[in-house]
Amino acid sequence: MMPFGRYAHIVGWGKAVPDRVVTNDELAQIVDTSDEWIRTRTGIRQRHIAVDPAETTASLGAKAARAALEVANLSPTRVDMIICATSSPEHAFPATACIIQDMIGASNAGAFDLSAACSGFVYGLGMAKGLIASGQAENVLVIGAETLSRIVDWSDRNTCVLFGDGAGAVAVQASAVPGGILSTELGADGSGAELLTLPAGGSKMPAT
Fold first, then answer.
1. Any idea what the CATH number is for the domain that residue 98 is in?
2. pLDDT above 50 for 76
3. Residue 166: which of 106, 103, 86, 102 has the closest Cα?
4. pLDDT at res. 208
5. Among positive and negative, which fits the CA dihedral 100, 58, 20, 88?
6. 28 φ, ψ (degrees, to nearest 5)
7. Domain count of the chain?
8. How far, in Å, CA of 102 to CA of 107, rounded?
9. Can you give the residue range of the structural domain that contains 52?
10. Which of 15, 29, 141, 162 is 20 to 30 Å apart from 107, CA to CA?
């Protein structure tokens, strides 16, 4: 198939969440908040939390990826690239995407992580579309996975109410049929970086 006239279609999708559910009423027992306060400001009623140490960003991502491949009826060995969007990776390196690649048996795939916080999955879809449109890939897995409960400050009511754990994945496939992901528009405003940040853990302020 020639690069021209190539379209990127979502052909499979999957999700994975831990079993443990924490409700707003439970959070109200540990911080100064209430179900009403959280719901009216965020719309959130509950969140899933990974309490089992074996449940990690990679394991949740792999479970979601397997589900997406099953819906797409696609063998893992046919995946050309794995993009994992996460702000809570397994390690500084290797990429969580590489760990997922091994977990699902996608031995022919390239793999890399993408760090763009809440917008990461959208960035990943844009990159998948670009890889397919340019002829560099036929099948791309885009995964968004987090275990933010392990790094969130549970004493801060402004942030602990927002985050949970889980993963979602889509299989994106090349096609000559018009449609699919037609366009993406990506942008950022780095001038606000200090307003939403996790200062420690990087090379500027290393973890101890």
1. 3.40.47.10
2. yes
3. 86
4. 73
5. negative
6. -65, -15
7. 1
8. 7
9. 7-176
10. 15
